[in-house]
Amino acid sequence: MDREYSQVNNLLAEATNLIRREKEATGNVEPAEGYKRRQIEELKLFATQHNLWININSLPLSYLSKGGENEVFTGHEDVVFKLNNFEYAGEDLENFFIRIEAHNLFFSNVTYQMIGFAYNSQYEFCAVLVQPYVRAKREATEEEIAEHMQALGFEMVYEDEYHNAKYEVFDAVPNNVLYGIDDKLYFIDTQIRFRPIEITL
């Protein structure tokens, strides 16, 4: 299965480049809100061309929960499946791919893998993500989260937000960070974005 996911991840790396090229080609000709619509259409075509559509109802999965952007399922393996509707990407899907890449860089014990695309229960176009299922003792405390983020080179800006020179990590709160049975922290669902470029005159 790891090899299968790796092959798909290579294809989805192409998808990342595809939406970036689409954005560059559009430039300032189209309003920002048009990027997302065009990028979604490009990804749908990409999914069809590379056989990346997944019928989530055909898999032996059990429904776990629904949040602002994810419908979450689990199966018989030690993973959870997340159908992510790109809600938190704003009007540019590149933000989604930046977040996944950065998450895997900083939180490598609970990485995302992308295995394709699907429609959720609301018939919204989604990326299908898999992530290790975390066996946890409890939620992490705010103090444990802060200590871990500081060890990664981040500075606390607000109680749930941390910055380094390149990234902003936010929504790093106890219900999104678990304390595992192995006494390690697992950041399962935070938001990450590039820091805005400061222009000095």
Features:
201 residues, alpha+beta, five-stranded antiparallel β-sheet, four-stranded antiparallel β-sheet, 32% helix, globular, disordered N terminus
List the helices and strands and how they pair.
Elements: H1 2-26, H2 33-49, E1 62-66, E2 70-74, E3 79-84, H3 94-106, E4 113-119, E5 125-132, E6 136-139, H4 142-151, E7 155-158, E8 161-163, E9 167-170, E10 177-180, E11 185-187, E12 191-194
Major sheet details = 5 strands, antiparallel
Which structural class should the secondary elements be placed in?
alpha+beta
The count of strands amounts to 12
Question: Span between N and C termini?
Answer: 52 Å
SSE succession:
HHEEEHEEEHEEEEEE
> Strands of the biggest beta sheet: in what spatial order?
1-2-3-5-4
Q: Please give the domain count.
A: 2
Please report the number of helical segments: 4
Mean pLDDT: 87
* Spatial shape: globular
In quaternary terms, these chains amount to single chain
What share of residues are in beta strands?
25-35%
- The helix fraction, in percent, is 25-40%
Poorly predicted runs = 1-7
Q: What is the C-alpha radius of gyration, as a whole number of Å?
A: 18 Å
